[in-house]
Please model this.
Amino acid sequence: MSECIFCKIINKEIPSQVIFEDEHVLAFKDINPVAPVHLLVIPKKHRESLNDIDVADEALLGHILVVAKKLAQESGIADSGYRVVNNCGDDGGQVVKHLHFHVIGGQPLGVKIC
Ligand code: 5GP
Ligand code: ZN
Model:
């Protein structure tokens, strides 16, 4: 996926502020934060969106959520609360077509639509 911007971030071809990394995932600061804490947690293997996930990826998805919780704790927003958001596809508002989960908090968040 040579043209994927998040694959380029994984490969360190584009700089980012990495918060956490292991063999399966990378977490880094969103370049355009919507709240005091705004991280992105992404799988290192390219998956375009949640639509490309199957049962073989169940452990990976679970790991992403465990990492999201750990980073929320380390960022000091676990007790005050936060959102983990996945935008899937065009109607879901997904802009970058590499699966990613936003971890957002540090202030009361805006309008809930669900
Ligand atoms: P989406 O709208 O696809 O759910 O979210 C994509 C997110 O990626 C946006 O919040 C946007 O600010 C972030 N983003 C896009 N390009 C870059 C980049 O080059 N570096 C970083 N750190 N974040 C990016
Ligand atoms: Zn990618």
